[in-house]
Design brief:
The chain is α+β, with helices and mostly antiparallel strands. It contains 4 helices and 6 strands. It has a single domain, classed as Alpha-Beta Plaits. Strand 1 and strand 2 form a beta hairpin.
């Protein structure tokens, strides 16, 4: 069985000063920079249960403690990156009852920081940041 995407007409134009041009949602990412991880039964439980918390929100691992080659500065963390369809999905995953139930298994056995970041659209180029930085 195959799936297909139907490209429906998108609203365009301006209505009372509010842009109605449709824009696809930006992907979002959950990043965790972890260190001093205690490898024990609780961490093993966390790892074995996290996938089930991601599935309802379209979350998927992109990086999970892979080999790191530092080319500038210093880095003594384990990096984890999870992708989501958009920021709303990422926020709802993190706040979900299922994820909050396993979160202490990680936080009680590691140090670090976790944050959500909105990504960019397909085809984005770094020079597009100049428009955001230009004075009004």
């Amino acid at each position: 069985m195959t799936s297909r995407v139907i490209d429906a007409p998108r609203p365009k134009g301006d209505h009372a000063g509010i842009s109605t041009e449709w824009k696809p949602p930006m992907p979002a990412y959950a990043f965790a920079l972890l260190r001093n991880v205690k490898i024990n039964d609780q961490i093993a439980q966390y790892i074995s249960r996290i996938d089930a918390t991601l599935a309802p929100f379209g979350g998927a691992f992109k990086i999970h403690g892979g080999r790191t080659e530092v080319v500038e500065g210093s880095f003594d963390h384990t990096l984890v990156a999870i992708t989501f369809p958009d920021m709303d999905h990422a926020r709802r995953w993190y706040a979900s009852e299922a994820y909050q139930a396993i979160l202490p298994l990680r936080t009680n056995n590691s140090e670090g920081i976790t944050f959500l970041v909105e990504g960019v659209e397909e085809g984005y180029q770094g020079s597009q940041m100049l428009a955001k930085l230009a004075p009004c």
